[in-house]
Amino acid sequence: MKRRRWTSAALVVAMAASLLSACSGNSASAPDSTSPDGKKGEVPNLEKSGMPIVKQPVSLTFFTGKAATNGNNFEETTVWKEYAKLSNVNVKFQLVPFDNLTEKRNLALAGGDYPDAFYSSRVPASDLMKYGAQGTFVKLNDLIDKYAPNFKKLMDKYPDLKKGLTMPDGYIYSFPSFYSPEFLPMLIGTPLWVKQEWLDKLKLKEPATTEELYQYLKAVKETDLNGNGQADEIPYAGEGINPLIEQIRGAWGFGNRGLGHKFVDVDPKTNELRFFRTDAKYKEVIEYVRKLYTEGLIDKEIFTVKTSALFAKGQKGVFGATINPNPMTQMNQPGYVGLGALKGPYGDQLYTHVKVPVVWPGAFVITDKNKNVEATIRWIDHFYGDEGATFYFMGLEGQTYRKTSDGKLEFVEDITKNPNGLTMDQALAKHITWLGGSYPGFVQEKYFKGSETLPESVAVGKKAEPFKVKELWNNFNFTEEETEFRSTVGTDMHNYIGEMEAKFITGSQPMSEWDKYVATVQKMGVDEYMKGYKKAYERYKNTK
Asked: How many angstroms separate the CA atoms of 262 and 277, rounded?
């Protein structure tokens, strides 16, 4: 999850975390433990419930992803210092910046120089399968039943959670970052925003169709809406072209299983899987975006602009429309309204810009070097209950947060209005470590009060709700053979499609070349690609 920028004192943040695995009838890989009296199944030194987790202190080492907003010593933060006292488990976090996390993680795994667990380390599904099969990662299926009651409740409540975590061999090797399926504003994440003040000046209603969006953007370009005598208004600006395509393609009925599947969905006519990016009707999606771009309704820097430069432009108040978590928190620009599902030229109206609930499947992974597997599972499971989640995201009541008269949680003014001029993130960094995202956890609305729970974001969720994807798929998990094909032929295909769509949109490639382009993609291996996808889908669908 991308790092959030926050509003000032009025912003209340409360997030819920839970570390996940799954329950199944499969056997666990942790070695059997035998108590001093010879009775199997009881782990010496482990408390069955409550705190502390162990009778005598134990030490663990975690390979840990670090965001730029985090401090340099996790052990000294309020949450981890207090949790060590509470649990009797002392964790040393080996911090690795996210910028070179993948390289360092791959080297550690390949060389065998890895610690007890990978925490917030973004282990991909392909590695979960690979190193799980080799025995490097611990199989968690049966261990969940015994040692993770909070997570087990989540698995029972959300059966699709298990589908997203189960590898092709039937085992679960990780605890993910998991967004509550009921928390639609969080799953939307980055709505398409338009400027209400400019709609009012133009005497236009909020766009409800793709044609109305076009007319609004065109009017922004042709009108001096900020009254400075310059043509500096930018109808639409964002970081890259894909977010815009992903926002509008539901108006043609594409992407109907959510953002986890950017090339494949289900054909509503046949109920079969389809590779929709080369569909004849999908050509119209690209033509629509091409029209916006060639008429100057999209920022010419859309393909190259950096985040910081985009925000700097946005802070000038010149964007008629944009896509991000919230213009207020990202660009200090109030007055934007988020759009719901736009209706397309054939009457399609589907909100498909919905992320998978299992955001980071490999957010927490226990390795075969861990001599305290059961204690480690209890350690992480605590954060899936209300008490542990509140503690993880909010810190200590009275020190970092307080409860309002209506029972809500909010950070203290030392954090929201820091007397030393620190930003909210900077003030929080000495207390918590979830800034920067990809942490193992369960995020639900009753705890989380960030950008996605501001009134404008909640309003987007309400607009999108009637038209949201009816069957939202988590990512599928592929066998090593399927992964090899996808990482070679599949990657080449994905890259070629992205490059060609950009050329069609900018006009450097005429639309008359579309059929030739489709034929090239087909020759690259679509049939084999879809065979693997169908196999993965069948496994996903049949996971119990």
From this structure: 8
